[in-house]
Amino acid sequence: MKKTMNNLSGPLNRQMSDTVFVRLCILPVIILLIVINIFPLFYSLILSFTEYSARKAFSPEFIGNANYRDLLTDPTVWVRFVTTAKYVVMSVAGEMILGFSIALLLQEKFRGRGVLQTLLVLPMTMSPVIVGLMWKLFMDPNWGMFNYLLGLGRIDWASNPDINLYAIVIADIWMWTPFVMLLSIAGLSAVPQSLYEAAEIDRASWWFKFTRITLPMVSPLLMIALIFRVMEAFKVFDVPMGISGTGSSAPPLIAMKLYKDTFLTWKTGYGSALGYIVLLIVIAITSIFVKYLNKAKQED
Amino acid sequence: MKKVLLLALALALALVFSVSFIFAGGAQESAADEDQFITIHWAQWAPADYLQKLSEGFTAETGIKVIVEQTPWETFVQKYNVEMIARSDAWDIIVGDSQDLGNMADSGHYVDLTKFFNDNGLKNKFTESSVAAYAEYPAKSGKYWGIPAEGDCLGWAYRKDLFEKPENAAAFKAKYGYKLDVPKNWDEMLDIAEFFHDPDNGFYGISIYGDNGYDSLVMFAEQMIWTYGGDLGDYATGQVLGILNTPESAAGLKRYKELFQFVPPAFNDAFFVKANDAFTAGIVPMTCNYYAFLPALANNATNPYADGTDYFACPPQKGADGIIRQYSALGGQGASVITYSKKKDLAMKWMEWFIRDDVQMEWARIGGYSCSKTVLDSDTFLNAAPYNPAFAESLNIMKDFWSHPDYGELMEIAARTLGNYIIRDNGTAEEALQACAEEWDAVINK
Questions:
Q1: Is B106 on the interface with A (CB under 8 A)?
Q2: How confident is the model at residue B344, as a pLDDT?
Q3: Confidence (pLDDT) at B27
Q4: Number of folded domains in chain B?
Q5: Does A12 contact B4 at a Cβ distance shorter than 8 Å?
Q6: Tens digits of per-residue pLDDT, A140-185?
Q7: What pLDDT, on a 0 to 100 scale, did the predictor assign at position B386?
């Protein structure tokens, strides 16, 4: 019996190279990715050139680039892109500044630092929709605590279209600052103490040490945090959905339009085209950041 | 050798999993044969719990179990649309939104129940408005796709204690010249809202919908349009222009906007939750909401003012032509059998059971809003809950939005154009209606 097994496995073992073995192992994952990720991606690309509603019993009708033309010549779409850009700049800038500042403060050793660090991470662990709904209640001018605690009177944060973008920025900063903080802490921990000791010997100022040692050493991780946050913020949906809903009082963010076109009015072809435009923009922005990240690594 | 063994192990594990799945499925099927069940899909709210409880009676009689699967309201419509697109047999019955009837029927997702409907004389068993909204499509075609399950429409709760307070009654009489009471028309509604509106002291005149993310603002707007003699269009021919954009419709929309100046702050996104929250927070004297959400206001545990709360139906209004009209925007759902169900026979058994008079009476008794005429006329129903008399009155005046295959687009257009005037304060009522009519016409007649 043993001999038979050896006879069988011998040729198999000889024929199967490492490469073949690795490929066989990853094949199920590749198939799964193709079925649930790659296929929908390409199928939606095809749909973006058609007039199609997934809710109706008719086949997609090829209409060329009409969906893209309609979208790119619609001034309201550009208003949405500009609003989304404003939101990305405000929220990501807030998160980067606050997250990095808190990480610097947590470098100091004090009692309860670990507990504080854990508590600070909690917002990030919550569901974004819950965060949105929670802030909506918190900021309600009739029964919320936000205005009361800050002595702001009856400011309508969630449904006043002039200011609700700021409400979403505040909620987003509250939720995602810990993410930047964690990456910053990881970066700060990796800075060799010997560099600071050498700077101390040279009687370097705090500012000199910060700009010449801390910042350059942490910048690759900060850049990674920046890339993730910009990508996420650009397609943010859950938090604004929770705070302002999808009505016309809600801030005109691009992801809200994508949702309304695709799932409320069921313009599947049109929604797919908008999805691709958003995807291309996110890829373009990310590529720029990745280029800078690689440059920073090379300089290191 | 090691590689081959590893690969063999992986393949063996895959085989074991596959076989166990197959056997598990087989076991489930054989269990189902012995223990029959149907699945009903509905939104996640109290009436779905009541339906689950009610269906225990069906199980006791037939041995067929009923699972009422609930989806949160926020994704309810999207979920069943997606499932139907996928031709899913996950459910046997959907208790779906009335506006979706047209699309579901046109797309072949619902079973044609015309024969069942006629054989059982359901046209006369349920109220005319509920049959038109939850069962019949196209309008007046005599083709039926569902049975009225949960009747619902807009109604009102008010603080009777505040209305009867002597100093309020006297001040109101002195200012407006008539008694402070349940409004007999929309002019009185406006007076009462204005009278109570006192923002300096954190009290406001009225709580009505302001959210235009889905259908809430449109629901309130349409009932105002109908009450003032306007209309949304001709549902049978699809004509909109010249029917929606009329002075009568504009008069209704203007009254909505006049009322909206007396809502609490941040009501631009108010839907059913906020409408009730304002009332239970004690900052408004009256609120408009779907009847399905009014039980919370009759409960001391959820409304501290429950003992002083009473209810009334949407009031009538004399139009410019001298005709008195009274309407309430329809909500609610009908129960329809899914085309892709593998247990249509069991689903039909449930439908036959559900339409029985004794079951409809029990449905109303435990909290469901039956549309059965027998139930609505009975003293048992009228005395079962404080809001039931108002509901019975409302069921005779309710009317629905377009039940059109493109209702999603029609809803979005109306929410945007009318909301632009009501909550964004842009343009006039006439401009909003003209914009809505033109866009609707383009969608319906494309």
A1: yes
A2: 96
A3: 47
A4: 2
A5: yes
A6: 998 899 999 999 888 889 888 889 999 999 999 999 999 999 999 9
A7: 93
C-alpha distance from A117 to closest chain B C-alpha (Å): 35
Q: How far apart are CA B51 and CA B95, in angstroms?
A: 10
Mean pLDDT of chain A: 90
Q: Percent of chain A at pLDDT above 70? A: 94
Domain regions of chain A by residue span: 76-299
- What is the interface pTM, i.e. ipTM, of the complex? 0.72
Whether residue A55 and residue B419 make contact (CB cut-off 8 A), yes or no, is no
A interface with B, Cβ–Cβ below 8 Å: 9, 12-13, 16, 18, 21, 24-25, 54-57, 140-143, 154, 156-161, 244-250, 260, 263-267
Whether B16 and chain A come into contact, CB under 8 Å, resolves to no
Residues 185-204 on B with a CB inside 8 Å of A are 202
Structure tokens at B235: 């549902």
| A259 band by pLDDT with thresholds 50, 70 and 90 | very high
Interface with chain B: mutation pick from A249, A256, A258, A270, highest number of B CBs within 10 Å: A249
Same domain (yes/no): B174, B243: yes
Q: Answer yes or no: is pLDDT of A271 > 50.
A: yes
Asked if B224 has any chain A CB less than 8 Å from its own CB, the reply is: no
Spatial separation of the C-alpha atoms in residues B270 and B213, rounded to whole Å: 10
Q: Name the residue among B311, B315, B344, B343 with its Cα closest to residue B327.
A: B315
CB contact under 8 A, B213 and A245: yes
Residue that terminates a domain, selected from B363, B379, B399: B399
Please check the confidence at residue A214 and state whether its pLDDT lies above 60: yes
| CATH number of the domain where residue B229 is located | 3.40.190.10
What percentage of chain B carries pLDDT values higher than 70? 92
Give the whole-angstrom CA distance, residue A168 versus residue A153: 19
Same domain, B166 and B223: yes
Q: Are residues B372 and B231 in the same domain?
A: no
Say how far apart CA A139 and CA A145 lie, in whole Å: 7
B226/B374 same-domain check: no
Residue A21 to residue B3, Cβ atoms within 8 A: yes
Q: Which two tokens stand for residue A243?
A: 């705070």
CA distance A95 to B153: 46
Q: Assign a CATH topology to domain A76-299.
A: MetI-like fold (1.10.3720)
- Among A140, A144, A138, A172, residue whose Cα is nearest residue A156: A140
Q: Do A264 and B103 touch (CB under 8 A)?
A: no
| Domain limits for position B274 | 154-329+406-444
Strand partners, B313: B155
